Amino acid sequence: MAWLQENWIIAVVGLVVAVLLVWFLFGRKKAEEIETPIAPPAEPKKPLEAAKPEIIAAEPARFKPREPTPAPVAAPAPPPPAPEPVAETPPAPAAEPQPAPAPSADNLQLLKGVGPKMAALLNGLGVTRFQQIADWTDADVAAIDPQLGAFQGRIARDAIVDQAGYLARGDKAGFEAKYGALGGELQGG
C-alpha cells in the first residue's frame, strides 16, 4: 500500500487505460448490429417504356441573315416598229450594238470591318464596287443596313462609306493615313 501512496498518479493513469480498453473491446456495437441506410425502393417502370429525357428549350437563332429579296425585273419595252423603206433599195443591215463591258468587281474585303461573309451579303444585294458604296446616302444606308442580318450597324460603326470613298478615288495613301494598312492590293491603284 505504501507503493500506491507514493505512485498514485501511475495507478490512476493505468486505471483509465484499462477502462478505455474494456469500453473499446466490449462497449461498441459489432458490425452486424450496425444498420446500413437503405434507399427507398425505386418505383417499378413499365416494361418497354422508353426513358423520357428532359426537354430543354433552344435559343432562337438571332443572327441568321435574311435572304435578300430579288429586285423586281421590269418587262422589256416592245421594240419600236421599223420604219418603212422609202426607196426600193433594201436597207443596209444595222450594226448590232455591243454591250458595254461590265466593270470588274472590287475586293470589298479591303474595307475595314468587311469580311468574306459580309462581302457575300453585299454582293447578293448587287453591291460590288467601292463607288457604289461611296455614293450611298443616309437613306441608302438605312435601307441596306437591316438586310445585313448579324452585320447590322457595321456600315456606320466602321465608317464603310467613308472608306469606300477613299478606295473608289484610288487614294491608297489617304486611306492608310486614316484607317491603317490596306491589307491587300487596290486594283488600278
Structure notes:
- With 189 residues, this protein is mainly alpha-helical.
- It has a domain at 108-179.
- The chain is built from eight helices and no strands.
- The protein has helices at 2-6, 8-27, 116-124, 130-134, 138-144, 154-157, 160-169, 172-179.
- The longest helix has 20 residues, at 8-27.
- The chain is elongated, with a radius of gyration of 45 Å.
- The chain starts with a helix and ends in a 10-residue tail after the last helix.
- 10% of the residues are buried.
- The model has no long low-confidence stretch (mean pLDDT 78).
Would you identify the regions where 5 or more consecutive residues have pLDDT less than 50?
A: none
Question: What is the radius of gyration computed over CA atoms, rounded to a whole number of angstroms?
Answer: 45 Å
What is the rounded distance between the termini? Answer: 120 Å
Count of separate DSSP helical elements:
8
Number of strands: 0
Portion of residues in helices? 25-40%
Biased composition (Pro residues): 68-102
Protein name: LSU ribosomal protein L21p
Biased composition (Basic and acidic residues): 43-52
Region (Disordered): 37-108
